[in-house]
Amino acid sequence: MTMSFSAPLVEIQSLHKSYGPNIQVLKGLDIEMKPGERVVVIGPSGGGKSTLLRVMMGLERIDRGSISFGGKPYISSDGADKKTQIDTEVRRSIGMVFQHYTLFPHLSVIQNLILAPCKVRGEAKASATKRAQALLERFGLGAKANAYPAQLSGGQKQRVAIARALMLDPKLMLFDEVTSALDPELVAEVEQVILQLAAQDMPMMIVTHDMWFAKNIASRVIFCAGGVVVEDGPPEQVLGSPKEERTREFIDRVFHIRH
Ligand SMILES: Nc1ncnc2c1ncn2[C@@H]1O[C@H](COP(=O)(O)OP(=O)(O)OP(=O)(O)O)[C@@H](O)[C@H]1O
């Protein structure tokens, strides 16, 4: 009998993070993610979901714990001197898209896309431009290469932000409520782009308040509350199957559904 072992892509161990002395947000979080998994993180507001992604991206220091990527620890702190060690080389293999686009307003779409590859990686402008144009075409934005962010809809801006993150060939994508700021009619176009990436087996960790999206994208759902993982399993287990839905109260609390 052959057995297949899949080494973890991401290993988060005993992650502790507080803001100042009084706001303890992550209280010993343990998460293991395998290659190809699409992990949706849900939980009550203020539970630390965004903080988790920001920490994974090296944007916040941690108090204690470690995160490994591809078997290499790249963020760690032993808690002794509150210093967080970050291996930026490893961290660069992770891309993140935020709720509020964070495009450079003074740069055109194509300039937004090629900036990091040219500056960080020293890629030639012509090669980066060619890759950028191909990505824009793929996301239905081919005609917007020379537009500025202010000339785009929210959905278009968010698709540009995703394309920009992909320019650095990430091995893992983090999405933090990327559709929360969008008008309802623009949500689907952004979710389609992420579903497209999922179909190509891009590993991803997604924080979302969109129940439909969570069910459609997740291969696994993690429910975080009180700074720890409370539930972790397949979507039908954590979110409830169509036949056996979670209580209305659970759904409302976690997905911010307004009546
Ligand atoms: N820079 C900061 N300084 C101080 N407190 C912060 C900071 N960022 C977040 N917090 C606090 O940390 C807690 C967790 O915030 P976080 O944004 O990670 O939660 P969340 O689960 O993503 O919430 P939501 O679902 O509402 O987006 C909250 O109480 C928040 O007010």
Automatic annotation (TrEMBL):
Q: What is this protein called?
A: Amino acid ABC transporter ATP-binding protein
Please report which protein family the annotation says this sequence is part of.
Belongs to the ABC transporter superfamily.
Report any Pfam family annotated for this entry. ABC_tran
Which one of the record's GO molecular function terms can you name? ATP binding
- Entry annotated with the keyword Nucleotide-binding: yes
Q: Which domain of life is it from?
A: Bacteria
Chief subcellular location? membrane
Is Zinc-finger among this UniProt entry's keywords?
A: no
User: Which UniProt keywords are listed?
Assistant: Amino-acid transport, ATP-binding, Cell membrane, Membrane, Nucleotide-binding, Transport
- Which locations, inside or outside the cell, does it occupy? Cell membrane
